[in-house]
Amino acid sequence: MNEAHVTITGWVAAEPHYAVTANGTPYLSLRVGCTPRRFDRQTNQWQDDDSLFVTVNCWRNLAENVNASELQRGTPVLLTGRLRIRQYERADQWRFSAEVEALTLGPDLNRGTVDYRPAQRSGPLTDEDRQLAREAADQWALTAPTDEEEPKAA
After folding, report:
1. Dihedral sign computed on CA atoms, order 93, 142, 102, 64
2. pLDDT for residue 120 is more than 60
3. Cβ atoms of 14 and 149 closer than 8 Å
4. Cα(133)–Cα(22) distance, rounded to whole angstroms?
5. pTM for the structure as a whole
6. Which of 56, 54, 51 is nearest to 16 (CA)?
7. Non-local CB neighbours of 70 within 8 Å, separated by 6+ positions
8. CA 150, 79, 73, 123 torsion: positive or negative?
9. CA separation for the pair 106, 113 (Å, rounded)
């Protein structure tokens, strides 16, 4: 109940990774990037702030539905979920990883249209499922964003 819920509007920054855990739970991980824009009154132009990249983890039906939706790098998305900041050590350095366990994720309808198809439901997560999510998130955290991953300006 006292979890930090966030809403993020951004772009798919890398091709989603879909897997099914050993016990059959569907899982999908993707990177979402957003670049805030501010209007600079002095120059009378829009300025891009630093980009933010977040790992988004989807489970069960949401994972299957996102996978079936074929979201690709560059697709504008809107998502809500539970924010998690993980701290870990790698190569003798402390690192932080921002992750969102998605509750909802879909195309941003301010920037396009979609054909909706209803889907069905499934069951709870195991510790093995959560370990798979941590390992996939570490893959994203280990690589710095490339120019290809830079989100498009809105």
Report:
1. negative
2. no
3. yes
4. 13
5. 0.71
6. 56
7. none
8. positive
9. 11
Structure confidence by residue, pLDDT tens digits, 73-83: 999 999 999 99
E strands of 21-153, at which residues?
26-34, 37-40, 45-48, 52-59, 76-90, 93-107
On the CB side of 145, CA atoms within 13 Å amount to 21
**What is the helix (H) or strand (E) element at residue 121, kind and residue range?**
none
Q: Which two tokens stand for residue 4?
A: 């930090």
Q: Which amino acid is at 51?
A: S
Q: Tokens representing 133?
A: 């999510």
- Show the 3-state SS of 132-154: HHHHHHHHHHHCCCCHHHCCCCC
Tell which phi-psi region holds residue 84, choosing left (phi > 0), alpha (psi between -120 and 50) or beta.
beta
Residue 113: exposure state from Cβ atoms within 10 A (0-12, 13-18, ≥19): exposed
Hey, what are 117's tokens? Answer: 């198809």
